[in-house]
Amino acid sequence: MEWTPDQRELADLELLLCGAFEPLTGFLGHDDLHTVHERGTLADGTPWPAPVTLHLPADVSPGDEVTLLDPEGLPLAVLTVTAHEPDGLTSGPIKALSTPEHGPFARLRRTPAEVRQELGGRPALGVTMRGPLDDLSEVIATAKELDAVILLLPLAYGEAGPAVVRAALRAKDQLPEGTLVVPVPLAPRDEPEIDLELREHVATRYGATEHFAGPDPVHIPGPPHRRGLVVFFTGLSGSGKSTIARGLRDALLELGSRTVTYLDGDVVRHLLSKGLTFSKADRDLNIRRIGFVAAEAARHGGLAICAPIAPYEATRAEVREMVESVGADFLLVHVATPLEECERRDRKGLYAKARAGLIPEFTGVSDPYEEPDDADLVIDTTHMSIEAAVSRVLDTLKSGRWVR
């Protein structure tokens, strides 16, 4: 079996492979997690501050070997499964297959062993950074007092990662000669004390004899009209969502205040998702692809509009996470036109074919539609004109200050 872990799991995998998480040799299971939470140790009593976990689908069993891939499909490691919990939590040792190459600033990345060798036994002040170092005087003074090399460890995880590395490179120009910069893909932990303890552990593995934790950056989001936004319509076939989405696109283009990307469901099916079937797995994959493209448009401040059926709550939540993880906003519009009205319209004759058994797994007939309980706007077009529905969505964008 092959599996691509999520972003956080990939970051932890890289640190496991390079030795930054020593003494760990793989992902933690139930017993280790329990003692980490309760006592800050592994089950055998070895001190360890934070969970390092992997979740896999249900079709794995103890003894199976799973090849873990990076986002580009490069095999990174083989996991030998020792335990698999009902919630997908999977533990077991890992064996490296190749060096991780994904992500920015690969040329700057080095293993802890390589950095320790370069330090050559000299004392080092390890500075972990999640943002710029506004005041370098304390770092310089501490390093001078310790007669230590300064080791800047920008914690290059997620969307902010490249900016943190750039901040470290700028800081290096103002620090003593010999300062080292080594990006570390350490994902933040939710509890500040645990996050700090893990940062200190990683810094020590890289050769730091003293640890200085840079302050966490203060994130002040820009005004809504400058932020990326995805307007995601969901609803049954025939509900009117695509027509409303096209109307919204036209209205926004007339205003001219935002860069608009419109992902038409049929066009996506012919191009981005050509070859996919209408099985649940392929429909989920289609929605993920739409979500990825929409998030990329929003990442750069654009406004993306998409209107797939998107019948499953879990997949819609994945798209919301994709969008919000790049710092953009997500507006879910449920076009809640009842099935009876959608079937009455049936312009394409799809419901008739589904009732006749010619289209298997058809949403609303032979496959469920999970109505969202987290919609930001709900519209029923049974007794509402398309113009009125478009106005409702546009008014929501204006009141939320996404459009001026």
Automatic annotation (TrEMBL):
The protein's enzyme class: transferase
Gene3D superfamilies reported for this sequence: P-loop containing nucleotide triphosphate hydrolases, Sulfate adenylyltransferase
Pfam family, one: APS_kinase
EC number: 2.7.1.25
Domain of life where this protein originates: Bacteria
Function: Catalyzes the synthesis of activated sulfate.
Name recorded for this polypeptide: Adenylyl-sulfate kinase
Organism of provenance: Nonomuraea terrae
High-level lineage: Bacteria, Bacillati, Actinomycetota, Actinomycetes, Streptosporangiales
Gene behind the chain: cysC
